[in-house]
Amino acid sequence: MERLEGHKARKRFGQNFLHDEHWIRRIAAAVDARPGQSIIEIGPGQAALTRELIAAAGAIRAVEIDRDLAAWLRAQFPNGELTLVEADALTLNWRELASDGPIRVVGNLPYNISSPLLFHLMEAADAVLDQHFMLQREVVDRMVAAPGSKTYGRLSVMLQWRYRMVKLFDVPPGAFTPAPKVVSSVVRMIPKKPEEVPSVDFALFSSVVANAFGQRRKTLRNALSQLLSQQDIESAGVNPAARAETLRLDEFVALAEKAATLGVKPVTAGAAPE
Questions:
Q1: Strands (E), 88-243
Q2: Residues in contact with 73: Cβ distance below 8 Å, sequence separation at least 6, in sequence order
Q3: Do the strands 82-86 and 60-64 form a parallel or antiparallel pair, or are they unpaired?
Q4: What secondary structure, in 3-state letters, does 216-273 show?
Q5: Is residue 17 a contact partner of residue 177, using CB atoms and an 8 Å limit?
Q6: pLDDT of 46-85, one tens digit each?
């Protein structure tokens, strides 16, 4: 496996390069790329997974922010197998990248931007077939957490509103260079069909969820006091004495719907009412 000699992983880009052949093949098998599919890899790095994806799909696109790596990647794949988008994945218009049809997104996401990037990609979820990401295990556990668990929180609710997700397997630190201090996990995210996504004012829904989890020990009666009264919460079919981590997705949706019928405006978690 060819590598870019002398290139040091850059902390500002959160780079940890996958090098273990076993884990590379296992991730590629989970993605199961096929010819003709529109696949976009975020952060191809030193092309460990990229080569496997190209071997299976014939050609892919990749988003790389590191100029040195981008130049090296172009030299590695000169025959149109890899189309590079030299940019920050956080600022890309992902819907534009899917202008020719639905895309499949794959990536070993930098830990420092994982949550913002997941929310950014959500804006184009209806143009995505699926997403396979390697992230810090702690983040994946939060993404797939069920109500009542210690890891269930804002990230769980917001992503589960839009995606069906399953944690596939863990990847040890030794599979990377440099080895991170944490275990990684691979997650599969499949956007729900439009008719399966609960219809709700997204900004208001986001505000309800953020405020509910803003101070986990508070009951909903207190945590949502800037948005809904105790009577409002009760009329939405939710127990005002409950805490956020016990609520199901449909209960958060019901609270957001109640707030919408009352003409409530989104409030930033922790902010004083106007």
A1: 103-108, 128-136, 163-171, 176-177, 184-191
A2: 44, 47, 50, 62, 64, 82, 84
A3: parallel
A4: CCCEHHHHCCCCCCHHHHHHCCCCCCCEHHHCCHHHHHHHHHHHHHCCCCCCCCCCCC
A5: yes
A6: 899 999 999 999 999 999 988 888 888 999 987 889 999 9
